[in-house]
Amino acid sequence: MSNLAALPIILPLLAGIVVAFIHKKTKIVRILSQVISVVNLIAVAWVFLQVQQNGSIILETGGWAAPYGIILVGDLLSMTLVLTTNIIAVACVFFAPQSLSKHQEEYYFYSFFFLLVAGVSGAFLTGDLFNLFVFFEVLLMASYGLIVLGNGKVQLRESIKYVLINLFSSMLFVTTIAFLYSVVGTVNMAQIAVRVQEVEQQGILTTIGILFFFVFATKAAVFPLYYWLPRPYISPNPVVSALFGALLTKVGIYSILRTFTLMFNQDVQLTHTLFIYLAALTMLFGVIGALSTHNVKLIIAYNIIPAVGFMLMGIGIFSEVSISGTIYYLVHDMIIKGALFLLVGALVYVAGTSDLRKMGGLIHHHPVLGWMFFMASLVLAGIPPFSGFIGKLLLLRGGLAQDELMIVIVALISSLLILFSMIRIFIRGFWGEKTENPYPERKRKAAKMAWPVAILLSFSVLLGVGAEWFYPTIQSIAEYLMDPQIYIDSVLKE
Amino acid sequence: MLLAVLLPFIIAIIIPFLSKWKDKIHPGYFVTIIPALIFIYFARFLGSNFEPVMREYSWIPSLDINMVFYLDGLSLLFVLLISGIGALVAFYSIFYLHKSEQLGHFYVYFLLFMGSMLGVVLSDNVFVLYSFWEFTSLSSFLLIGFWNYKKESRYGALKSMLITVFGGLSLLGALVFMTVLTNTTSIQEMISQQQLILNSEYFPLILALLLLGAFTKSAQFPFHIWLPDAMEAPTPVSAYLHSATMVKAGIYLVARYSPMLSSSDWFFIIVSSVGIITLCWGSYMAVRQTDLKGILAFSTISQLGMIMSMLGFGTKVAVFAAVFHILNHATFKGSLFMVAGIVDHEAGTRDIRKLGGLMTYLPITATLALFGTFSMAGVPLPFLNGFYSKELFFDASLHLDEIANVGVVGFIKMLLPYLAVFGSIFTFVYSVYFFFGTFRGKSHLEELPKKPHEAPIGMLISPIILILGVILIGLFPKWINEPFIAHAASAVKGLEVQKEIYFWHGFLYPPLIMSITVLVFGTVLYLSRKQWAPVYRIIPGVLSMNKFYDGLVDRLETYSSTVTKGYMNGSLGRYVRLVLAAILIVTFAFMAITGGFTVDTSNLADVSLPEIFVAITMVIAAVGTILTNNRITAILILGVVGYGLSMLFVLYRAPDLALTQLIIETVTVALFLLVFYHLPKLRKKEEAASTRMLNLIISVGFGAMMTMIAISAHSSKWFESISSYFIDNTYKLGGGDNMVNVILVDFRGLDTLFEIVVLGIAAMAIYGLIRLPGKKEEK
To answer: Where is the MrpA C-terminal/MbhD domain (chain B) (predicted)?
Structure first.
């Protein structure tokens, strides 16, 4: 037992509260937030190393032993995702002053930001199903705060959709927890796992599992539950979009991954086959969405969806290789989505429009932005040797090893279409005749916006070229997930 | 060897930093040195007693992805072509590209391409090969788009990328398949375990995916359409990527996998027929072109088809001829592209209708073109290398002894010699057309944008070297046969291949008769070309793969738009309907399949009269909320539901919960009433009866589903609940009397802490909303 498990939650929680009190002193808040984010990243990295060396860190909050109290489980999967979250957080916090208005910064952007990070980290760390619900509420409420920040008319109209769908899924979540509690008499995830296993997931349990899947799938934007996602994601400020695109859907995927490796793993034939079909549909419809529009922000937002399909594919195939593919893809996708939303925010800023048909020749004025975008497109489409390729390769290998031909072919087709949807932006937006720069005065600020993106992109390159440094860890996580007994023993200490 | 492959990449990274010296010295000089060094490095391996070399460098061992370089005869042939032609093209480009161009960009892409291409032909690890493969496509994309202010450049770049990356992804599919089947990522090991692949039930699919990759890259029919549009790239690029090297990557791939695949009938059927069709189609279409580079593009397509078909034959002669022709094609086609570039540069146009009679103005260039075109046409002269490989091609098409005579295979085998002659006739026609149309005949100087004159000597050096190659290989084929070509052919065939190359075999040698047939018919067709030109209006006429591609790309956007707008119409009601319907259908299906629904009444308490009364009131109130038209009424009725709930809490002896619920309900109703004062009147949306019906079905269905799950969950209490622990320990360990309170603040204090945070965030969000500056109402 170690209090370290709570560190990634406590630090941003306190930061969020502190900056709320001095919210009008924008300059101080900015610097403070940047410092705290970096410190938090370092702290989390340190905890990650501890976990990597000594195994999971378990914290029984309030000293109440499992399964009665709330348990935080800092295992390698959780810490990997928390670490990635914090990398994105740092990039966003440095990007924020460039893109936010004074009012947005003053009215609690940084508080919402930290509390969102706290909520996301909490969701990754908790070992208690009801507590997961609570952290979902935290991150959702923070996201409500962020999405309405600035108060645009379009923004508010889209926020309503976002809020209502998420409220519905929260209601379904808590109801489903009640159903499950009625059957297994506990909300501790390890104990649920033991008990579901004991009765071989018979009777109503698979149905309850599917309800959980839908709760998380609504957040993760799986077909056919993603309707709410694209437009609300692009209506707020780019930095908010980046946080949403990088973190929120991934919490949903993480929850599916955790739930269906640890707890509902007894009827794989049925549940996981459903996942494969939904994954295929998610990829196709998502990428079709990305091709359907000329709004660059919307193209990026739609591209969230096929990535979710890729990750769900790995869960559906359910082998060690495919699960490690999902985890690799998860980390990769968090980083690249963060980078892309920031990048496209900068693009729209320098172009003065988000309509692709009105852009052209931007590379002559903004070469750095252009080449970063080109690279990000390659990363997203899974071109080697960047990070997307490693995840995709693992998923394809896993798929073919299990004779899942259909999903592999769909994945390949979607990769091509993803690249097409992205390269369209590059060709039409950046290439073209050299014209007068419409906003020459925006060049300096755009250069400042480029830095955080460059940092995220270099992580993408590192994850691909330096896969040897990361893959063994990811592989050991997959091994660990495929053997839930390790988790159960570490929490229940039997 | 690792350094040789990585050197271009390293220099590519350095180049942008040298841009300030750009005005003093043309960076092309610097870049020419690199391929020259690589050429020298690899030329050391030449020799009769060459043995394959394998070098391993660790990269991602845990995924079995390592830099394993395998240099055998086939790789050596390609490596020398890539570096040799690379050096010549880089040197040529110094005079072709002016300093005012974005030279830094150009040479970075150029080097990226060269490094990737070396990687493709040297990698033994399939995933490393794939990585380099995609990079060749990408650098080709960037080079075609070099003059991206031109619309055609952008179009050509996108087209080549979509088609080659499509092929790349299907290649990836094939490679992953083979990796999974053989459990190795090494090509050589896959070949040694070929039975695992050949006997797999997926073999036809693997073959199809692999060949798709090769055919798209090597511009085989019907994927050839990207190559003519790729001619928008600067001419040195066309000479290098789109004729001598990159387009041969597909050929390389097929050759590399030949030892494994050639035993399959499918391989023969597909590869030789696609190859021969490409040969015929390419040469037929080349005659119609008016742009010099257009002629060369279709000519390249057709020559690639010829090489591909020979790989498909798979006999010793054919394989030998194929590798021989890879070399020959690179020499004469490379020089012809440079000639086209010179003409464009010096005369200002590449339109053959405006050109003519340039012999007098560009005598050296014309001489080079003469050798190049005649070698390409396969004119039987002893100093033209193109004739030798053409004759070997005819020979190979006649001697398919290893191929069975039955069925489809036999039919194709019978047709092959005729198609080979047919394709070669048109090859002859366009070769002659290229030379005579540009350099002979009447000159129309007034139509030319520039007054033509001979090119600077620097620009001529590279094509001269290539044409010397054409002549020397023609005169002394022995020099390169044993130390070079034979090794390459053996690597493709998988066993020793020896073949003597002669010029003269006697008059009654069948291939010679074929060559003479080509010569005669070709001359006739060239002279009468005006008469039969209308045939192009029938074939291809309006049907073309280009139209298909354009239609597909356009439609991809419009269809996507239609599909997406079909369900993403922005209406919240619709989203909710779709979400609920999806959950409803799937969950019901699962409940039915797993037999999840159970009812167990053994453990139920009696229902009292007050409970029934409260329940009915709540149901009526809930329904009433939906039916009313008035906000205030709605909220008041909703309040009834809440109060009903607290009544139930009272009945179930939970007074504290009842109290809480009562307070919440009262506050909520009061707040709602306050806010509603400011809201517009509630309007009933006019919805179609069918939509309302659908809404009714979905909501009743959803309610029923949740009820059924609740009943089943209640009927399946298989375990003792953890709540007994709380009952036992609330006082003992928690030190409190009220269990709910102790749970909230102690046992599950973390939940409470964060629920408070949630409320705090909500408060801040609302405060931020209210304090919005510039709101219209504010003064």
So the answer is: 617-681
